Amino acid sequence: MSDYSDLDVAPEVVLVRGLLEAAEPFVPTAAEEPAAVDPERFKTAMRAFATGVAIVTVDLGEHLLGLTINSCCSISTRPPTVLVSLAHGASARLPLLERGRFGLSILAERHSELAELGAVPGGPKAVDVFAERLEDGPATIAGALAHLDCSVGQTFEVADHTLVIGVVEHALVGEGGEAPPDPLVYYDRTFRRLGEPLRPREGGPT
What is the average per-residue pLDDT within 157-174? Predict the structure, then answer.
């Protein structure tokens, strides 16, 4: 049984047998949209979030296109899926959607030149000089820490970006199958190297 003892009732509203009755027809008001954060302030805030660096590749046969991103994450292990976020104006977006497939190579320190190339605004960027083609396998970035070969599972349009869900069909890891110690890191609009661990590894987010 509801208790209305703390309900603030407007004068034009009458409480009758547990029901609210209004003297005038009730017309719901649209919820006010929260004030938007200034885009530059938002970007400044996000610069405080350090990430790894990856390059999305689209294999067109005659060329391998590349686009540097840091907006990607794993979603699930059953089945293995990843998410990448592509601006509507991103050079690789339309080729990726048309092809229905893409690669995701995680970059090492030595790939900083490639990362800078893939981040330049403009038309499609061929990264063939950085690539290697595996026998009966996908084209990958040579020396990548890891490479995921994906088919496009789903896409979602959110504001001025397309979120792409990739179903991982092949996963290649650097030498020895272990995560290498020299990933390329992006922080405050600058490519950096990883520092020393704060303490011995005992687990954490995966």
Answer: 93
Under DSSP, is residue 200 helix (H, G, I), strand (E, B) or coil?
A: coil
In the predicted model, is pLDDT for residue 20 greater than 60? no
Q: CA dihedral in degrees (136, 96, 42, 75; nearest 10)? A: -50
| Contact (CB, 8 A) for 152 and 100 | yes
For residue 115, give the 3-state DSSP assignment: helix
Structural domains in the chain, CATH included, are 51-189 (2.30.110.10)
Exposure string for 126-150, b = 16+ CB within 10 A, e = fewer? ebeebbeeeeeebbbbebbbbbbbb
pLDDT value, residue 108: 94
Q: Do 39 and 47 meet the contact criterion of CB atoms below 8 Å apart?
A: no
